[in-house]
């Protein structure tokens, strides 16, 4: 038996293309137009067989992907005449309308392509077993003509099976068998035979949408006696359709909403929705001005796809009730209304509140709450309700209440105002001036009757309970060890279990050390000169201090041990003028840390001034090898010398004259190309053993690169590729001994002549732009800085 070949899908019946038909059965959602959608399935035969007149009593079932012969064909055993049978399952299509059905079959081989194609497809009875030539099923009508194709063999051939499928489903057949054969007397002619790939059918079928379900009105499920509180409710229904594909949406459907007044059922309004893929929930909003308060209405929904409609859903009835109930009345004997101190009850003590809505006969309940009406209580048959509510704060309190009727309409809000008595215990501190680590005896005095117990907490410690004495008071001892703010909270409890509000006591433990300095007054004022060592004395702000941790101006923390009396001294020398911040905190042997003292002091600046006409500040001057003078002047009397540094050079000193002035000469050795000529001079004055703060003088060295000239290759152009030319280099830096030049990436040197020049010869190798980079160097190694000479080489043409 030959092996069946892959084959393509029918072009006119499938929307997914031939490749998708290689897997069967295949279901797809037809999407030829956005407004019309249906489900198309490609069905492959559930059984395939062929018969052979040479072996009339033998059946030849094959795999559903194998090829089958039709017509008369030849083998080693002689001539054979065959017909093929394809059986399909129609059970999924029972009860559906067949919209379109197209068959597809292909040729794997043809005996003689010169002969016309004579393939016929006939409907037969469905045999219980694969048929033989002798037991062939009864043939009925020809199912359809195979559309011809110029290809031979044709990979696929199509035929219209719509009426055949439609009639079979209408007749209730759950199976369909189609026979393929060569027509009439051609069946005996070997030249008309061929081998066929399996027949498949693309079936577009449709079932009517399901009856709409899950109807709602104004967001509420339909129910007997349904009331709604709006004259423009949203109607909705769930629409489903049996024509679905697993993992995909089903048909595109619409929903038609019909609504009417129950007492005028003939005055019916209908509205049809947009299309959407099922399943989906569809909604319709009844326009304003149509429904009236007190009216009873009904609506129903029907679904439709492009081919069929569902039945109307069961109707949903509702009555419009838009009348809001009156604002409720609130009363309470436990917490009477008004702002009259000292008030009643207490925070956490529940009281009963009564709600009524006079004049209303349909109250369902009440919403209430301290911050807004969020909690709910059901009303009794009379429309009243009572709640137990415990206020959460003292003095002014409010309870917000709204009545709600059976429809869900809420009334205007009632604000019930009442005063809650302060029941917090009072706290008396027996050692209000105690330091950190010192015990304090606290006395608790009740703020309500019948107190039997207090619960207190120090800062974030665990709460502690203490029993009350006969007079309702209690005492407790605490030992605070936290610097800065401290808090004690306490509540009481009666013998009946009623809680009090919370009493509070705050105290501050000032544990920060104090700082003093003779040289640098703390808190401002003119301090010692910069560079003067200053002594800073630390004194404890709590007992038991064993060490101090200190830092200045964000510098590293340093630790100094405390003396027996708890004090410590440190030395600090300032390096700049102006304000300095110092931070200090202390520690005890058990690890208790004090608060941090932040203090400031001022150091007096006596930075010198710098003058230079040769190298003025922020200006270009001099250059490598060009000497210049700088004058240093003191900011105060007594200066004996100066310490100065030119950027990139070693630090040097100079002795000042009797007037405190000093002059130096400086000859720069090289042009700082990495800094674009910038040089920073820093100077500090000295007076005995102390050194002032720093003065900065920034200057720019002039670049003294050689100049270049050439009559052979002026910048405007000359010479040509391969034509040598002379270039004259002229030194600009005093004492230049040699020129350093780069051309085409290679560095060369040439000695400077007695006249300060040198001539070099260059031979350009290409036309266009060229650059010659030049600098000079002294015998001592001073460099001028580099510049370039641009010239253009003419094109040889």
Task: Give the CA-CA distance, first to last residue.
Answer: 81 Å
Largest sheet descriptor:
9 strands, antiparallel
Give the total of domains. Answer: 7
The number of helical elements comes to 1
Give the overall silhouette: flat
Can you tell me the residue ranges where pLDDT is under 50 for at least 5 consecutive residues?
1-36
Helix coverage percent: under 10%
How many distinct beta strands?
A: 61
Question: What structural class results from the helix and strand content?
Answer: mainly beta
The Cα radius of gyration reads: 54 Å
Mean pLDDT: 92
Task: Provide the β-strand percentage band.
Answer: over 45%
Q: Which characteristics define this entry?
A:
7 domains, Immunoglobulin-like, flat, 797 residues, six-stranded mixed beta sheet, mainly beta
Polypeptide structure, described:
- With 797 residues, this protein is mainly β.
- The chain folds into seven domains: 18-206; 213-320, Immunoglobulin-like (Sandwich); 329-420, Immunoglobulins (Immunoglobulin-like, Sandwich); 426-509, Sandwich (Immunoglobulin-like), CATH 2.60.40.10; 514-603, Immunoglobulin-like (Sandwich); 609-701, Immunoglobulin-like, CATH 2.60.40.1930; 707-793, Sandwich (Immunoglobulin-like).
- It contains one helix and 61 strands.
- The strands form 14 sheets. Strands 3, 4, 5, 6, 8, 9, 10, 12 and 13 form a nine-stranded antiparallel sheet that branches. Strands 17, 19, 20, 21, 23 and 24 form a six-stranded mixed sheet that branches.
- A hairpin with a 7-residue loop joins strand 3 and strand 4 (60-62).
- The chain is flat.
- Mean pLDDT is 92; it is low at 1-36.
């Amino acid at each position: 038996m030959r092996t069946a070949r892959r084959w393509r899908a029918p072009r006119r019946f499938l929307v997914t293309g031939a490749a998708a038909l290689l897997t069967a059965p295949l279901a797809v959602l037809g999407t030829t137009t956005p407004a019309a959608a249906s489900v198309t399935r490609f069905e492959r035969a559930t059984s395939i067989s062929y018969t052979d007149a040479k072996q009339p009593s033998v059946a030849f079932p094959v795999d559903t992907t194998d090829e089958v012969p039709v017509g008369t064909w030849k083998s080693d055993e002689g001539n054979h005449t065959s017909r093929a049978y394809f059986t399909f399952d129609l059970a999924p299509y029972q009860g559906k309308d067949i919209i379109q059905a197209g068959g597809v079959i292909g040729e794997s081989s043809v005996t003689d392509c010169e002969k016309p194609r004579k393939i016929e497809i006939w409907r037969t009875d469905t045999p219980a077993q694969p048929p033989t030539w002798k037991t062939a099923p009864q043939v009925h009508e020809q199912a359809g003509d195979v559309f011809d194709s110029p290809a031979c063999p044709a990979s696929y051939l199509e035929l219209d099976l719509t009426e055949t499928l439609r009639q079979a489903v209408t007749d209730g057949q759950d199976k369909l068998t189609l026979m393929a054969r060569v027509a009439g007397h051609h069946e005996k002619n070997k030249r008309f035979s061929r081998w066929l790939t399996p027949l498949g059918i693309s079936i577009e079928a449709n079932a009517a949408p399901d009856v709409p379900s899950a109807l709602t009105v104004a967001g509420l499920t339909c129910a007997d006696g349904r009331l709604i509180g709006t004259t423009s409710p949203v109607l909705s229904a769930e629409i489903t359709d049996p024509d679905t594909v697993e993992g995909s949406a089903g048909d595109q459907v619409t929903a038609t909403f019909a609504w009417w007044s129950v007492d005028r059922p003939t005055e019916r309004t209908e509205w049809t929705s947009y299309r959407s893929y099922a399943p989906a929930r569809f909604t319709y909003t009844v326009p304003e001005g149509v429904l009236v308060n007190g009216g009873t209405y009904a609506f129903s929904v029907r679904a439709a796809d492009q081919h069929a409609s569902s039945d109307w859903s069961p109707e949903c009835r509702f009555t419009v009730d838009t009348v809001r109930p009156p604002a409720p009345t609130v009363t309470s004997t436990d917490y009477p209304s008004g702002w009259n101190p000292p008030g009643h009850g207490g925070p956490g003590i529940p009281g009963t509140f009564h709600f009524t809505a006079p004049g209303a006969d349909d109250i369902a309940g009440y919403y209430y709450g301290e911050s807004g009406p969020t909690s709910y209580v059901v009303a009794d048959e009379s429309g009243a309700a009572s709640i137990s509510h415990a206020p959460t704060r003292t003095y002014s309190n409010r309870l917000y209440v709204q009545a709600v009727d059976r429809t869900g309409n809420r009334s205007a809000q009632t604000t019930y105002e009442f005063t809650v008595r302060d029941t917090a215990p009072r706290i008396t501190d027996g050692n209000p001036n105690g330091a950190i680590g010192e015990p304090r005896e606290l006395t608790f005095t009740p703020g309500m009757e019948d107190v039997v117990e207090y619960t207190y907490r120090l800062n974030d410690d665990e709460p502690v309970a203490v029993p009350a004495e006969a007079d309702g008071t209690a005492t407790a001892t605490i030992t605070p060890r936290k610097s800065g703010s401290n808090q004690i909270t306490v509540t009481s409890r009666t013998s009946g279990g009623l809680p009090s509000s919370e009493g509070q006591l705050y105290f501050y433990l000032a544990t920060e050390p104090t700082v003093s300095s003779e040289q640098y007054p703390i808190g401002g004022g003119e301090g010692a000169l910069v560079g003067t060592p200053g002594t800073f004395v630390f004194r404890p702000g709590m007992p038991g201090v064993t060490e101090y941790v200190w830092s200045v101006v964000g510098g590293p923390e340093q630790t100094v041990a405390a003396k027996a009396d708890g004090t410590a001294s440190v030395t600090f020398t300032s390096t700049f003028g102006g304000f300095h911040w110092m931070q200090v905190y202390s520690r005890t042997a058990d690890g208790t840390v004090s608060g941090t003292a932040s203090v400031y002091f001022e150091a007096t600046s006596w930075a010198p001034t710098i003058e230079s006409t040769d190298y003025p500040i922020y200006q270009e001057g001099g250059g490598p090898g060009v000497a210049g003078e700088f004058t240093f002047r003191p900011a105060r009397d007594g200066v004996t010398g100066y310490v100065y540094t030119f950027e990139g050079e070693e630090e040097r000193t100079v002795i000042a004259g009797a007037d405190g002035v000093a002059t130096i000469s400086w000859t720069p050795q090289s042009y700082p190309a990495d800094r674009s000529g910038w040089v920073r001079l820093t100077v500090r004055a000295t007076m005995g053993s102390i050194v002032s703060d720093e003065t900065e003088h920034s200057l720019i060295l002039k670049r003294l690169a050689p100049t270049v000239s050439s009559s052979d290759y002026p910048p405007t152009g000359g010479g040509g590729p391969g034509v040598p030319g002379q270039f004259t280099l002229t030194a600009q830096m005093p004492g230049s001994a040699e020129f350093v030049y780069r051309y085409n990436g290679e560095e060369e040197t040439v000695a400077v002549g007695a006249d300060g020049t040198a001539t070099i010869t260059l031979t350009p190798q290409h036309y266009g732009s060229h650059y010659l980079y030049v600098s000079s160097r002294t015998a001592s190694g001073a460099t001028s800085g580099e510049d370039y000479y641009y010239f253009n080489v003419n094109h040889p043409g």
